[in-house]
Amino acid sequence: MDQKTLLKDMLEFNNKFVESKEYEKYEATKYPNKKIAILTCMDTRLLELLPKALNLGNGDAKIIKNAGALVSHPFGSIMRSILIAVYQLQAKEVMVIAHHDCGMNGLHAEPVISTMKERGISDETLQTLEYSGIDIKQWLHGFDNVQESVKHSVHTIKQHPLMPKEVPVHGLVIDPHTGKLDLIVDGYES
């Protein structure tokens, strides 16, 4: 597909979608039917596979996505979203679901920075970030073990000073080919 027509094609489809009232089969409230918030990876293979593997339909869960299903900062936007889901949107449980064969697994900053430079990001910009206290290499670093990464994110959520202690936080890893889930942390037991 030609990139310059992508937006146009999507908007044309959207007009037909709305005109034919296709949205009616997806109507739901802002509150998750299954009372769960899920942090997962933005990987394209999980777009439909993850909800199907968990028997989730539209309106069943709050799904928060980022690269690697990581809570990299306890006061960043991911943690804020989880807390809002719990305090304002009736989520009673949290799941962290990473996946095998993740692009963040083994990711090192150097190739990313090299590509940034090829696409016009200057050394001066990178130096300014470093001078401002941002360790760009650490910020862009992925993880070395998906199970350990899930445990770390679960721990960060569970130990957050604003997270209610009674909220179970589960950790899982999904196979992006089959949908099989491996339980890493059972939030009912921890």
What does this 3D model show about the protein?
It contains 7 helices and 5 strands; from the N terminus they run αβαβαβααααββ. It has 190 residues and is of the alpha/beta class. It folds into 2 domains: 29-105 and 144-185, 3-Layer(aba) Sandwich (Beta-carbonic Anhydrase, Chain A), CATH 3.40.1050.10; 108-141, no CATH class. A hairpin with a 6-residue loop joins strand 4 (169-174) and strand 5 (181-185). The longest helix is centred in the N-terminal third of the chain and has 17 residues, at 3-19. It is globular, with a radius of gyration of 19 Å.
Any key phrases for this structure?
38% helix; Beta-carbonic Anhydrase, Chain A; alpha/beta; 2 domains; 190 residues
Q: Quick gist of this model?
A:
The protein is an alpha/beta fold and 190 residues long. Helix content is 38%, strand content 16%.
Count of DSSP H/I helices:
7
Second rung of CATH, namely the architecture of the largest domain? 3-Layer(aba) Sandwich
Q: In what range is the share of β-strand residues? A: 15-25%
Spatial order of the strands forming the largest sheet: 2-1-3-4-5
Which geometry do the CA atoms define?
globular
The major β-sheet equals:
5 strands, mixed
CATH homology superfamily name of the largest domain: Carbonic anhydrase
Mean pLDDT: 96
Q: What count of structural domains?
A: 2
Q: Output the structural class.
A: alpha/beta
Task: Describe the secondary-structure layout.
Blueprint: H1 3-19, E1 36-41, H2 46-53, E2 61-66, H3 77-87, E3 93-99, H4 109-118, H5 123-131, H6 136-140, H7 146-158, E4 169-174, E5 181-185
Parallel strand pairs: 1-2, 1-3, 3-4
Antiparallel strand pairs: 4-5
